[in-house]
Amino acid sequence: MNALKVWARWRPLKSNESQQGEIIRSSDRDHHRQQLQISITASAQDQARSSRERSWKSAFSFDGAIEPHEHNSVVYNRTVAPIIPDVLRGRCCNFFAYGHSGSGKTHTMIGYDFENSDEFGLCLAAARQLATALDGINAEDNAYRFGIGLRVYELRKNSAFDLLNNRTECFVREGPDRRVYIRGETEMLEDGRVRVRPIATRACWNFEQLQRELQQGLKHRKTATSTVHDQSSRTHAIIEMEIITTDLLDARASVVDRQSELVPVGKYATDVYIEEQLRAVVQTEDGKYSPNPDYQVNQQRVDAAETQKAEFEARVKAAEQHESEVFTTTARAHECIGGRLVFVDLAGAEFISGADGAALKQSPQEKQQGRQINTDLLALKEVIRARSLAQPRIPYRSSPLTMVLRHHFEASSDAQSSMILTVSPATDQYAATMNTLKYGDLVGLANINKR
């Protein structure tokens, strides 16, 4: 298994940070492995730290560093652009932005300027390049029309919030097939049918449409006050872009409809069986149950209900088979179908002290929120390390975040994926910056022998 790439991105100093000093940093490259070692030292003005706290050095575990003056376009060209051909071959590629609050994760992954292409976040820049490539494929073959299926949601605890569907709460569940599903609330339909919709997919046929849908969805993202600023993302935002066709989306919708039709029929079959079994026994005076001599199980009724249930189960299987056939047929003509880009803007890493080293004053809810975020981030690191070391057991169940990402991890080669560590050069953020780099160092170290 190939190694996930690890990058460090330094954000510029803010105007109110320039007088406090800047972290002294340097790097050295192992030209044999083409890996980077990063060293940091606290500013000379910061005399409060012990000698142990004032300097830190990584192993040769990073793939590169992006300097403060370099725009998002530079980050994109180094990390995402090289793998777009893989996506057009139907592969899945994952990108993570990790760092403490205020370090530039959302700026890197999503961006705030939707007009300046140099400052497009990675997801928008990738969508533009992907849409252009699909335009070329569509122009060559009129039999298929390829677009980008967009899904945008955020994770908090065991819930996912669908940002393309008015932030509707969905639930993370593992199915009997061991796949993890994100489903909305149960809808009661006519004739007793029950439908549980998957998270919304918006079909976008050009870049401008995708840009509008993404902007609209991101308006629903939840922010709150953190240890650094008052607009911190307190959830993990996940943006999925998949190469789709209308036929594929229709086939998937048909599966959901057939499943909704099965629910009342399956419930009726269960009710009939239970009713017949209960009629066939009586309770004695001592509280025990014995066969009812006055009633014989109506096996014909039970069999009829089971036969009807089997018919509807066959319809579900037929719809699933049709979906598979649509995908396979399309893939024979164009291997791009199903190619996916997954961008994960992780919630800001939480630490137990503020910039001045003093203990943070947090409400019980904020403390619980911080613990959940750190649990998710630790679980993600352990999954990445276990995959890089080809361990027999990958701890996907350690958190809802890694459960949701399991399908994307298993569909990808780590060589097509990257983690971007966003770090601040400000001296008062030295501890947070060092902890972020340590996280990346641990991920990178697990990858070294896989290069």
From TrEMBL:
Chain ranges passing through the membrane: none
Domain Kinesin motor: start-end pairs: 3-446
Binding residues annotated for ATP, in chain numbering: G99, H100, S101, G102, S103, G104, K105, T106
Compartmental location: Cytoplasm, Cytoskeleton
Family designation: Belongs to the TRAFAC class myosin-kinesin ATPase superfamily. Kinesin family.
Cellular component GO terms held in the UniProt record: microtubule
Keywords, ordered alphabetically: ATP-binding, Coiled coil, Cytoplasm, Cytoskeleton, Hydrolase, Microtubule, Motor protein, Nucleotide-binding
One BP annotation, GO: microtubule-based movement
UniProt-listed PROSITE patterns: KINESIN_MOTOR_1 (PS00411), KINESIN_MOTOR_2 (PS50067)
Coiled coil: 295-322
Superkingdom: Eukaryota
Name used for this protein in its record: Kinesin-like protein
Annotated InterPro entries: Kinesin-like_fam (IPR027640), Kinesin_motor_CS (IPR019821), Kinesin_motor_dom (IPR001752), Kinesin_motor_dom_sf (IPR036961), P-loop_NTPase (IPR027417)
GO molecular function per UniProt: ATP binding; hydrolase activity; microtubule binding; microtubule motor activity
Pfam families per record: Kinesin
Principal subcellular localization: cytoplasm
Keyword Transcription belongs to the record: no
